[in-house]
Structure prediction request, 294 residues.
Amino acid sequence: MALYLLCIALFTIGLYGILRKRNIIKIVISMMIAEYAINLMFVLVGYRYEGRSPILSPDQEILNMVDPLPQAIVLTAIVIGLAVTAMTVAIAIRIYEKYGTFDVTKINRLRG
Amino acid sequence: MVIMYVLLAMMIIAAIAAIEMEDLISSVIAVGAVGLVLSIAFLVLKVPDLAITQLVVEILCLIILIRATLKRDLPFSASGRWFLNTFIAVAFVVIFLIFAYYSVKDLPTFGYPVMKVAKFYVDSALLKTGATNIVAAVILDFRAYDTLGEATILFTAVIGVMAVMRRIGRKKIGEKIEDENE
Prediction:
């Protein structure tokens, strides 16, 4: 329970950064932190006390093994997170070249 | 699980440093520290596959972010509606925490997972796929379409990055290309 709350605290730091910061790179970094917190949360839900990693061996039963399903899903999520980060950073670099700043409040040339 | 508390405290400290530091390179390094400690936490939680993947992905993210922040300006922009921005951010965080409190109460107790769905995979992994690593059996055999979609997303991201970052369009006949790469 306390580990869940610490994990949510980590997500909260990322959420605060996304909402509050004005630098685009800081926003990308906050998104990465929130994503790490969610991945860790899934793995924590599947943890079992005294559990072993989900690799079959002769003395391995279901009851002394951590849950393998969240791990398989998070493995997909980590790689997709890399793709999302690369895409946002590429867009940020183009915005810097066009406007000369990373500040989101200064990017107002589209204002009507 | 004392070591998990220590690792999570380290991650939280590094995350606060990453968000609050004024130098962009410093915050990139700090977010690298968060990811590497997360990799150790995956090892402690008995998830070796995820630890390896997290390590590789973290190093790639670090390279991409450093490419974005080198030779760029510093984010000194404290002017403007400081109080309003902070108030709105804190209000959203508080609303999130209220909902999170009620949802955490409904999760299974820490250390005792339910494993209703996973029971089928664990039982029939060796029989149906011949793989002893159950995570590999799930992502490559039972849920191979998920992995196909993941590969598609990676491919799409590569195409998107190339389309966004490309400088020179199709060249007309006889036109000279001025090379302005940095």
User: Anything to note?
Assistant: Chain B has a mean pLDDT of 85.
